[in-house]
Design goal:
The structure is a homodimer. With about 250 residues, chain A is of the alpha+beta class. In chain A, about 35% of the residues lie in helices and about 20% in strands. In chain A, strand 4 (about 75-80) and strand 5 form a beta hairpin. In chain A, helix 5 crosses helix 6 (about 210-220). The first copy, chain A, binds a DNA duplex (30 and 30 nucleotides) through helix 6.
Amino acid sequence: MHANVKQNVVPLITPGLKVACSQCNLRELCLPFDLSDEDMGRLDSLIGGGRKLKRGQHLYRAGEPFESIFAVRAGFFKTDVLTEDGRDQVTGFQMAGEILGMDGISTEVHTCNALALEDSEVCLIPFTELEMLSSEIHSLQHHLHKVMSREIVRDHGVMMLLGTMRAEERLAAFLLNLSQRFSARGYSPVEFHLRMTREEIGSYLGLKLETVSRAFSRFQDEGLISVQQKHIRIVDIPRLKTLLAPPDGRIG
Amino acid sequence: MHANVKQNVVPLITPGLKVACSQCNLRELCLPFDLSDEDMGRLDSLIGGGRKLKRGQHLYRAGEPFESIFAVRAGFFKTDVLTEDGRDQVTGFQMAGEILGMDGISTEVHTCNALALEDSEVCLIPFTELEMLSSEIHSLQHHLHKVMSREIVRDHGVMMLLGTMRAEERLAAFLLNLSQRFSARGYSPVEFHLRMTREEIGSYLGLKLETVSRAFSRFQDEGLISVQQKHIRIVDIPRLKTLLAPPDGRIG
DNA sequence: AAGTTGCATTGATACAGATCAAAGGGGTGC
DNA sequence: GCACCCCTTTGATCTGTATCAATGCAACTT
């Protein structure tokens, strides 16, 4: 990955990259949701263009001033938090239609890093202007709140995963989550390409990369999935789902 | 705790409990932040009164329709998520000035339970009305966004804790976090009363209650803290902080 | 004041996942 | 198209935390 030596170069807005929510087939997943044509137009004119990123480039880094949130148009990202003492926690993986950067609102400074895991495209949404517009368009305001709330709920799910699940359960939950999200975007729910390394999966799931690799192998041995490097095929979704319930089943 | 047999009774709004942000000494920590007198008055008239809860009573439960967020006026809460298969994860502990219930915005239904760990009081903030007001008062809107964003950032911190830290590090981080929050409210940063059980701490930190207990004992043996049941005195804050850095220190 | 009940502490043992180590394979960049 | 390097896999061993178990403590009830 020699391209990575250039990862310090902050990519500029791609001049020719026109974006318009009104034309976007991700609009059901993304911000605009259910706006009138007129309001959609106002949102279009707010979106500050797009930005293309090569694999390995940072969309933003912790410490940079916060100005915009981003909508993933295409590609795949990871976000991670880094502490002074060198700990590194992947906090999420984002795909088309998902919003990045809301961590920066609270302090006006980004608190995590967002890195493109493949060549990607995002829409830039200047936050101050979004706030102004959303105070005029109630459904936009409400949808923004829903998006932020959804992020909070998602985070609770990750806490649940990290706090209560064993390694295989975590990985099963991870695969099923990816499956569901790919499916919602019109891709196969059973066959997909992992954009992240075992180490990144491990960081997200609170496991070491070897543990992730072993769990993949065991799933394959048991006929649940087929793995070949980053290519995954889920063979038995129902049985994968049963892994999420502990052996003794429901209690109480 | 026979009083708990009544915990199913949903507490109603306490009729006589008048609340006013303008009079509240928590306003710097809570929603209003820096409003003009006039705007403060409008916010006051929106707040739908207060509610008192006895220890053991639920403020809301997962599945209930979402209508309001809540500001803790006094007391102490925990929030937890419960899965169908019986897993239980404490997602946070909330004290005076902190906001509860933002998880419910995304689906219009609460996704977690909020339980009073001691006799408590909250302000009811009807969310639809808050949105309406916040589209008129820009600084209120922005502050609401900051509060939600802060929750996201906090969640990332918990992920970091659950994903990368060992038991003693988690407990040290937990104690230091409590210390800092008590301090911000004018209480002693070194001496406080835990409102939650070892099991609840364990659930929050992804540990078993025995592990929490042992870690407390070890901290005491090493002269870092003094523990007597739920009473904690932090003897050596600096040394407690060093526990958060791994033995080899900063890397890279 | 005694009894009850839940919570906390402590010890012994078991086990899941981390760590250490080595080899093979595939994608990437030149 | 080739070579290099990173990623992945797999094995052996170690260790931190869970689990199982029993006792102690404290608050609340009656």
